[in-house]
Design goal:
heterodimer, A: 114 residues, mainly beta, 7-stranded mixed β-sheet, 4-stranded antiparallel β-sheet, 0% helix, globular, B: 109 residues, 6-stranded mixed β-sheet, 5-stranded antiparallel β-sheet
Chain lengths: 114, 109
Amino acid sequence: DAGVIQSPRHEVTEMGQEVTLRCKPISGHNSLFWYRQTMMRGLELLIYFNNNVPIDDSGMPEDRFSAKMPNASFSTLKIQPSEPRDSAVYFCASRHRRLNEKLFFGSGTQLSVL
Amino acid sequence: SQQGEEDPQALSIQEGENATMNCSYKTSINNLQWYRQNSGRGLVHLILIRSNEREKHSGRLRVTLDTSKKSSSLLITASRAADTASYFCATSTGNQFYFGTGTSLTVIP
């Protein structure tokens, strides 16, 4: 099993640019989570999906953030336009709702907005 | 916020010593989990304790849970340099997982 795969590992962009982060969950997992990690705020839950459907996006900071899960094997988190305060590590995690109560994390995307 | 808080924020010990870190949370939970994060990596699940359990062991890890005090502790016995990492507690109410602020553990060889 390849685990949760995130891309890119690092992203450096300029303020105002669109940023798209990608995630491939573990095959068979039907819940997917997006987290943001910063020194100041720790790990924040942004949004989670069950069976490709967004269930709770109350953690999404602003309308500039959007997330999609077009199928069971792919999700994107988009920031448009990006701002320097969006700089953080973004993690994707997945789990099988019925079989497994623990989360499996990807290696994260380090985003720097200049 | 349901987010937990770990205590201490940072801990430095000698190899072979035991490390204890604590977690407090705010609301009722289904279970509490501990995760480990090495620098520059994603979080890795260590152990889960259910709300009706008081203590659980896994190798050198021992977790306790006191639901009346809304607190948990993680004990790592006979620490090793490779245990150097950040440790997070996560509370679960079913579908959502909320993480604490983490304890940064340094084990000095």
